[in-house]
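> forwarded from #structure-qc
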């Protein structure tokens, strides 16, 4: 398995840099903030919580709360674990050497890397910038998908671009998969952070019987430190196989994390509203910076999520830009190469406080570039 480029990059810089402008999560909640809003019954559970082993599939109350967000899923259809672990479990239980996989690109590396490590043939379906907007070509997918395709991997809302298909485009993707009997695995870690709630897509597990949804608390709920995510799917045999493999990874989840996750799901609406407010302010500031420097920066507006993927047009490569900004200004951006992409793009993370202070340092640096 190849080194995880983005995670190795973060390991080098994330906890040492002054202005982290490429994080994909939202400003994390404190334990005190979470407990202050918890209902009395859950607070009593917290105070008496025993730090023992938990159920391998996930706490039943937590799975029931997760299932309540879907229309066709019960708690028995949910597996709880760290999101990254779930990608690993799913791919290893579903794929075999020689299987054909179509994966959206650019993407979080594990969405294709794990399949390649298993020996599957992975074909990239690219998100492209067309007329200043991010687009997927459905005709291109129709030409790629076929009787040998075992899995289609998508990510909506998309990281790193912030792209979101329309409801009609999403339905067309599902129809293509259904025509060929292909499973669809959708990374929905940013679902809930749509700027217009009317544009929120149905979960793939509700829209398609062979759909598998990945979600969790890291992005939308601003709780990445809990390491709680879940898969929702209509396939008891596959779920059982993942549980059996999980006996060789983490076995079960952290008891405090599961209970805190249950609290967070009960206060989802105010958490999302708070996160969207942060994203809106930072999105506006980033767009304004690009507008002030059109010869150097091109803004491609995201439609959902906590990330954006503008384009660098200056005299340096985007990798050199990022290296100089972190070394000279203490500002960390994530170049496109970390996502297996090119085109001069880099990722902004829009979900955290302190974003505009980092933009100020970028602008001061840009103004030193000769015209």
């Amino acid at each position: 398995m190849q080194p995880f480029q983005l995670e190795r990059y973060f390991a080098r810089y994330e906890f040492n840099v002054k202005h982290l402008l490429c994080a994909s999560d939202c400003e994390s909640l404190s334990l005190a903030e979470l407990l202050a809003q918890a209902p009395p019954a859950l607070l009593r559970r917290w105070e008496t919580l025993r730090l023992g082993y938990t159920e391998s599939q996930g706490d039943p109350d937590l799975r029931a709360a997760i299932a309540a967000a879907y229309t066709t899923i019960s708690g028995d259809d949910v597996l709880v674990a760290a999101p990254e672990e779930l990608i690993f479990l799913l791919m290893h239980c579903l794929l075999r050497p020689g299987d054909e996989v179509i994966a959206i690109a650019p993407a979080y590396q594990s969405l294709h890397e794990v399949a390649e490590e298993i020996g599957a043939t992975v074909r990239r379906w690219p998100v492209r910038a067309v007329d200043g907007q991010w687009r997927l070509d459905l005709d291109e997918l129709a030409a790629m998908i076929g009787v040998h395709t075992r899995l289609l991997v998508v990510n909506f809302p998309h990281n790193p671009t912030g792209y979101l298909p329309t409801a009609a485009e999403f339905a067309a993707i599902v129809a293509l998969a259904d025509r060929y009997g292909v499973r669809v695995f959708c990374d929905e870690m940013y679902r809930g952070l749509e700027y217009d709630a009317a544009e929120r897509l149905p979960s793939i597990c509700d829209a398609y019987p062979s759909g598998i949804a990945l979600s969790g608390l890291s992005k939308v709920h601003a709780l990445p430190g809990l390491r709680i995510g879940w898969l929702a799917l209509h396939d008891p045999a596959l779920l059982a196989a993942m549980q059996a493999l999980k006996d060789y990874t983490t076995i079960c989840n952290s008891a405090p994390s599961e209970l805190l996750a249950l609290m967070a799901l009960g206060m989802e609406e105010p958490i999302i509203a708070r996160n969207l407010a942060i994203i809106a302010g930072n999105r506006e500031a980033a767009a304004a910076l690009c507008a002030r420097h059109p010869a150097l920066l091109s803004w491609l507006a995201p439609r959902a999520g906590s990330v954006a993927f503008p384009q660098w047009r200056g005299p340096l490569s985007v990798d050199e830009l990022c290296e100089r900004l972190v070394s000279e200004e203490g500002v960390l951006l994530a170049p496109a190469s970390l996502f297996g992409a090119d085109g001069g793009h880099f990722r902004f993370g829009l979900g955290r406080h302190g974003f505009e202070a980092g933009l100020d340092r970028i602008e001061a640096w840009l103004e030193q570039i000769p015209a």
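QC bot note: The first helix runs from residue 5 to 13. The longest strand covers residues 121-130.
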